[in-house]
Design brief:
316 residues, alpha/beta, Rossmann fold, four-stranded parallel sheet, 13 helices, 38% helix, globular, binds N~2~-(3-carboxypropanoyl)-L-ornithine, binds phosphoric acid mono(formamide)ester, ArgF'-like, amino-acid biosynthesis, EC 2.1.3.11, N-succinylornithine carbamoyltransferase
Length: 316
């Protein structure tokens, strides 16, 4: 694998899931693989799980790790070409990416959506520019439109906990007062479209995700109906794609409670975290026997290890 930016980069999903499960059983089996190589992890936005799990996975593979909060500590980076740099950005990505690429063999980047300009966000300019100018493999640590390491961890978690050959997986919108990106939901749909599952997506009207991501997922606007018989309930808030970046509703009746979970087929609850308790999901669900959120977050380490292993194999 040359880069890990989206599902398109994955040569074989089931092999990648298996690689994650193998890493979980034997974390240090490939410790020689990353020896004398360095990964740089660049964060333009906050992170708990991605930062620690990717660092840990890289160390399990013997890689040296450099983490930088570029959003806080670095020079403001200009991403556009040919502009007069007389604003607040002191450095151009052309130099910054090339310089970081000279220090690091792999670069991981987190850069969220602006939620103000849909066309620009969906062009993924930060990732395209680093890919163009760094000269080394680029790993997506959550971009404007996708979060593939999360989606891979979700696939591993579903594989571990599924009780049916083809489980019903329901992605449900959850209420939140802040506008959040579509990245996690988009990416989850993208990966579920290639997994052995029945995908249903439910949200209030006006929250339709880009059809490019929903794919063959069935959209049902009635949450109760969508949840019927679900094996996995995957919660996430996102802001409107159509009315880009807007919060159109924070209807509390969309919060996941035990009553909602009782509509499922003894379903498990999943969420990428962080999440706001009793806004999006009730305590009773998170603290109850059906929540998988901790197992899911723990699997981020093995997802990152599987992806990094594939990148290292591609560098040989
Ligand atoms: N990396 C996981 C999700 C990150 C981000 N959540 C957030 O920004 C939550 C912020 C808050 O609840 O204030 C998102 O939805 O894409
Ligand atoms: N799920 C996830 O990506 O968490 P962080 O934002 O804490 O990395």
């Amino acid at each position: 694998m040359k880069h890990f930016l989206s599902f398109q980069d994955v040569p074989d999903l089931s092999q990648l899931i298996t690689s994650g499960i193998v890493a979980k059983r034997n974390p240090f089996g490939d410790q020689e693989m990353g020896k004398n190589k360095t990964i740089g992890l660049l964060f333009f936005n906050s992170s708990l799980r991605t930062r620690i799990s990717t660092q840990k996975a890289a160390q399990n593979l013997g890689l040296n790790v450099i983490v930088m909060n570029v959003g806080q500590d670095g020079w403001g980076l200009e991403m556009e070409e040919g502009v007069i740099m007389n604003g607040d950005k002191a450095e151009h990505v052309k130099e910054a990416a090339a310089v970081i690429g000279s220090y690091c063999d792999i670069i991981g980047i987190r850069s969220f959506a602006s939620l103000s300009d849909r066309e620009k966000d969906y062009q993924e300019i930060v990732f395209q520019q680093f890919k163009k100018y760094a000269g080394v493999p680029i790993i997506n640590l959550e971009s404007a439109t996708r979060h593939p390491l999360q989606s891979l961890a979700d696939c591993i978690t579903i594989e571990e906990f599924k009780l049916k050959e083809r489980p019903k997986v329901v992605l449900t919108w959850l209420p939140h007062f802040k506008p959040l990106p579509q990245a996690v939901a988009n990416s989850f749909c993208e990966w579920m479209n290639h997994a052995e599952v029945e995908l249903v997506v439910t949200h209030p009207k006006g929250y339709d995700l880009s059809p490019d991501f929903v794919g063959k997922g069935q959209v049902i606007y009635d949450q109760d109906k969508a949840l019927e018989g679900a094996d996995f309930v995957y919660g996430k808030n996102w802001s409107s794609y159509e009315h880009y970046g807007q919060v159109l509703s924070s209807d509390p009746s969309w919060m996941i409670t035990n009553d909602k979970m009782s509509l499922t087929d003894n379903g498990k609850f999943m969420h990428c975290l962080p999440l706001r308790r009793n806004m999006k999901v009730a305590d009773e669900v998170l603290d109850g026997p059906h929540s998988l959120v901790i197992e899911q977050a723990a699997n981020r380490e093995w997802a990152a290890q599987a992806a990094l292993r594939e990148i290292l194999l591609g560098m040989k």
